[in-house]
Amino acid sequence: MITARFTAACPACALTIAEGTPIEQDPASRQWVHLGCLEELRDTRLSEAPRTVCPVCHTVRSVTGACMCEEDA
Fold this sequence. Notes:
By secondary structure, the chain is α+β, with helices and mostly antiparallel strands. Helix content is 14%, strand content 18%. It contains one helix and five strands. Strands 1-4-5 form a three-stranded antiparallel beta sheet, with no helix packed on it. The protein has a two-stranded antiparallel sheet with strand order 2-3. The radius of gyration is 17 Å and the shape is elongated.
């Protein structure tokens, strides 16, 4: 645990990390989050289903299944 030296957004809760706020780093992603938000970040990462890659344009498909080679993307 350290204190934030800069203002940033917490990737776990999307709230502002103000200068001087206690923060901790996720060892897997190396992102800094509020002290106590680390479990939320891990839960979010685990709940996200892996997405497929389009074999034509080689982009990761969106959550709706669209890719860059589709007209409505």
